[in-house]
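Researcher: Structure for this, please.
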Amino acid sequence: MAINIYNIIEQLAFNRPSASNEELKAASIIRNCIYEMGKSCEIVNYDIIDYEVVNTTLKSMDKEYDVVGIKGSGNANQISAPLYFMENSSDQDNFKLRGKIVLIEGSLDIEKYQKLLNCKAAAFITYDETITELDQKYISIGTIPGVKIKKDDARILIKDNPLFLTLDLEQRSTYRTGRNVISEIRGTTFPNEIMCITSSLDSYPNSIGAYDSGTGCAMLLKIFEHFTQNPPKRTIRFLWFGSEKNNNTGSKTYLENLEDVDLEKIIFSLTIDKCGLALGKTTINVYTEHALANYIAYESKIASYPIHVTSKHPYSSAIYFAKNNIPALLFSKLSTMKEKEVDSLQLISEETLESTALFLLNLLQKFINADTFPVKRIIPDEVKEILNKH
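Model: Predicted structure, token format:
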């Protein structure tokens, strides 16, 4: 079997939310590709906590607003409170937040959320379209009932300026089954030195996940195929993590279940978040010693493959490897469009996929087959600061 990256992405281009039957279908597609290459593969199940929103209403004295409950934000039983519009996170409005239902300007972040908790706001409203549920980092510091509203409706709400709002939010916790796909190519010379290469299996709700991250899943299969034909000196463990769009649950669960002795064997990790976008900016985030960032920058120039090298990318499985003191890279090609594009096959360039495969394989072969592994197990203090924010 010869892997055609684009054809694999086409097979994976369907909605596959975290812990769904469709996620299992995607896991089976990956597993079957590996079987066709004559290698073994395992689908590992795990339980994840989910939240089901049962009922959500937001009303004024004479009007009801269309809102959606934010999963994990707790319950609100007929909370009646004045509306307050929080334009920023400055100290000047702290005393005004107490006991209010707060409409947040812009995106929800940990700083704003912490302020709502500290100032004892009654509830919050956001028009941040990317928020469907609270990340575990929010839930861990406390819960406050929250709902999402469309931006146009938020404008109407501000203009209406109701004296009081009444919020009802009912949700319950449930358990679902997530899946990780794991396969390994054993090293010929240093079998106990393991490099992990990962991507995310699931898609965002209401997305076909072709670009995010069908491209990453397919790229892993291409790399897997290469090393089945060219046995590596070090062991390579390929990990397709499920439920990554649900607080990176797949990667966190995998790492948490490893014994310390097994973690010590993992000397390096590469996460391929997304790739192959026709228009966009290629980025490698380096969570280890600075020397590696400089080396990758030089390699990209030699290969005429432009890459922006940084260490400030947000949430990903690479962060959890680095938090376990494992040097980590995160490869991603991000859209430069200001408006969020709908994920589709039309965004992807077959030529870009092929050039990306060549670059990554060239880079990986040098690391995996070096007589002495060149990257030290070091996470600089400034990188640790970035990691601690996540």
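Researcher: Any notable elements?
Model: The mean pLDDT is 92. The first helix runs from residue 5 to 12.
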